[in-house]
Write a structure and sequence with these properties.
Blueprint lengths: L1 H34 L6 H23 L2 H7 L8
């Protein structure tokens, strides 16, 4: 059980890093599209809003160790050094 828990903790932080990187690439790509004047479909606007809100609350909860993060991921989910 302890090995599974450690695996899940490490997987969560790897997922967090990868999703943050991919979110940055996605928003950079959309920024380039806006700079060159390309039209962005309305459905993509809603996806951006949802991704932005989720990323904001996930990173905010992780940084400040908020209660909803402990509810979602369990007590003491930070990697211990």
């Amino acid at each position: 059980m302890i090995i599974l828990f450690k695996f899940l903790k490490i997987s969560f932080f790897v997922f967090l890093d990868i999703s943050g990187i991919l979110l940055g690439v996605f928003l950079l790509f959309l920024g380039v599209l806006l700079v060159i004047g390309a039209a962005i479909p309305q459905w993509l606007d809603w996806i951006i809003v949802v991704i932005g809100i989720c990323a904001f609350f996930l990173h905010l909860g992780h940084y400040f160790n908020l209660r909803y993060m402990r509810w979602l991921f369990g007590e003491n989910y930070f990697l211990e050094k």
